[in-house]
Design goal:
It contains 2 helices and 11 strands, in the order βββββββαββαββ. By secondary structure, it is mainly beta. It has one domain.
């Protein structure tokens, strides 16, 4: 069984799930997730001109030991998309979801995603690995 020490999982993120997009207005569900591992320097490399970054983040969540707002549980995207009431669950989908380092109280669409990107370091979900041993790995850019 793979584990990551709780000491290494000392970060907090705010996840914005894209719930619906109709008539040019997107609706997001905000979930704060505690006890995650977040590496915002993921994919940095040394080049001849110094350190080059690809603006990627690696996020690892131990599904057995996390805390979320409203006690939401993780659900794979296909199952989550089929729900009519998504309030009790969260997911990660590369089709519109993004996350912000730390806890953010701003709601969308009151603030646009572009305004949020100016204010906070935001990472769009680029890929999600199937949870192996209850460890969920997400790459954001």
């Amino acid at each position: 069984m793979k584990t990551i020490s709780r000491r290494a999982r000392n970060k907090k993120i705010t996840l914005y799930n894209l719930v619906s997009s109709a008539a040019g207005v997107s609706t997001f569900q905000r979930t704060v997730i505690n006890r995650v591992y977040l590496d915002t320097g993921y994919a940095q490399r040394l080049s001849s001109r110094g350190v080059a970054t690809q603006d990627k983040a690696q996020l690892i969540i131990d599904l057995r030991d996390m805390a979320t707002t409203s006690n939401r549980a993780f659900m794979p995207y296909k199952d989550w998309a089929a729900l009519t009431d998504k309030a009790g669950h969260f997911t990660f989908n590369a089709g519109g979801d993004f996350f912000v380092e730390e806890e953010v109280t701003d709601e969308l669409p009151a603030m646009t995603k572009q305004q949020m990107q100016v204010k906070y370091p935001c990472f769009s979900v680029a890929s999600v690995a199937d949870p192996a041993d209850n460890l969920l790995q997400i790459i954001g850019r």
